[in-house]
Amino acid sequence: MNVRTTGAERFFAPCPRGLESALAAELTALDAADVKPTDGGVAFAGPLTLAYAANLESRLASRVLWRVGGGGYRDERDLNALARSVPWGSHFHADRKIRVDVAATRSPLKSLEFATLTVKDAVCDRFRDEQGRRPSVDKRLPDVRIHAYLTDREATLYLDTSGEPLFKRGWRRDTEEAPLRENLAAGLIALAGWRPGTAFLDPMCGSGTIAIEAAMIAADRAPGLARSFGFQKLAWFDGPAWQRLKQKARDRVRPPPAEPSIHASDRHAAAVAKTRANAAAAQVEGFLRVEQADALSRPAPAASGVLIANPPYGVRLEDRERIAAMYPAWGDALKARYAGWTAWLFSGDPDLPKKFGLMAERRIPLWNGAIECRLYAYRIVSGRLPG
After folding, report:
1. Which residues contact residue 104 at a Cβ distance below 8 angstroms, ignoring those fewer than 6 apart?
2. What pLDDT sits at residue 1?
3. Nearest-angstrom CA–CA distance, 302 and 20
4. Taking the model in full, what pTM does it have?
5. 3-state DSSP call for residue 350?
């Protein structure tokens, strides 16, 4: 297969909205070139082998998409021609099962479902013309994912080098989806500016997602070490080169410290048990201390540090009333016991600042899926904040 493995290939990494600048910094550190944040993700360039490193190392990206074609279009016929112009047979084999996804912003096309069918037909027709056979479609467990993104005038075609979304680190054993995806949890840590060696606490840890992401950073454990990726099904995949890169990542994993500085707690025993099990599955259990404790009464684990929490948000009326009473009590508890700490609270509740009783120094807009949220920063000092 005649596919370049060096040179400036074009990529796009979507991420949770609000994390674009942090992701751009992360990709720049991986030696990506021409890094350009945009709404909902980051465009960048580099050799195809950069897809290995970006998938293995990115804590913030949702996927890494490789641009394989695109151009101007006006209707479905133009879209079909664009998709048919891509040499798909150079990128993957006809025996691979495919899935096509189309997303659009202000597209003139009336049906995204028909646009998806148009791209799928173009891919299969190109294979049939060149090889006399075509890939089959499997929407549930595809080998190769093809993405098309349509604006009002431009269509861009990508091959997904990630496969499953990158927030799926490979360690989560519970079947229900966590309320906070792993890459968003890592984004909260990045925005808070926490670094290993500084005390860290999530006092409402739930299944442990935020604390485990902090532990993986402290361990210098690449987030993709325990999973496979979509690029392993593409024609340019170089198995030995990939294994060498993974081995380098394994070799740099740090041993756990004698005394962990990362702490997680929850008032529910089931949450504590789940956090411990998930930390063990992620191979970072030695990097965090997990205990059962109520956030309103637990003492600070160190004289100073960073607290990050995703506090509960009630849907039922009785839950909303209980939580509304909890916030001011928690604000008082932080003032009493956490002077010297910075607390970062992530919430989709727009009334949280009024309930909490402390003055937020920063309010960072973020999105948790389709839910508009804020990350609030509170510098905790004894008594009242200086005004």
Report:
1. 112, 115, 149, 150, 151
2. 37
3. 32
4. 0.94
5. coil
Question: Which pLDDT value is given to residue 365?
Answer: 97
What is the β-pairing status of strands 305-309 and 341-347? parallel
Q: Domain 9-160 belongs to what architecture?
A: 2-Layer Sandwich (3.30)
Task: Report DSSP state, residue 16.
Answer: -
340 Rama sector, left if φ>0, alpha if ψ -120 to 50, beta otherwise = left
Instruction: Answer for the pair 379, 385: CB distance below 8 angstroms, yes or no.
Output: yes
| Number of residues in the chain | 387
Q: What's the pLDDT score for residue 166?
A: 98
Evaluate whether 235 touches 93 at the Cβ level (below 8 Å). Answer: yes
Q: Where does residue 175 fall: left (phi above 0), alpha (psi -120 to 50 degrees), or beta otherwise?
A: alpha
Query: Which residue is associated with the tokens 């897809």?
Result: 51
Residue 201 pairs in a beta bridge with 263, 307
Q: What is the CA radius of gyration of the chain?
A: 23
| Whether 358 contacts 334, CB under 8 Å | yes
Closest CA to 378 of 370, 355, 366: 355
Which residues lie below 8 Å from residue 387, measured CB to CB, with a gap of 6+?
none
CB–CB of 284/178 below 8 Å?
no
Distance CA 51, CA 49 (A): 5
The C-alpha atoms of residue 367 and residue 62 are separated, in whole angstroms, by 13
Give the integer Cα–Cα distance in Å for 318 and 166. 36
CA distance 211 to 188: 11
Q: Are 167 and 184 in contact (CB under 8 A)?
A: yes
Q: What is the mean pLDDT, run by run of 10 residues, along the chain of 387 residues?
A: 60 98 98 97 97 98 98 97 98 98 95 97 98 97 98 97 96 75 98 97 97 98 97 97 98 98 97 96 98 97 97 65 85 95 95 89 95 96 56
Domain ranges of the chain: 9-160, 182-222+255-379
How confident is the model at residue 324, as a pLDDT?
78
Fold of 182-222+255-379: Rossmann fold (3.40.50)
Q: d(Cα 146, Cα 101) in Å, to the nearest integer?
A: 6
Domain 9-160 identical in fold to domain 182-222+255-379: no
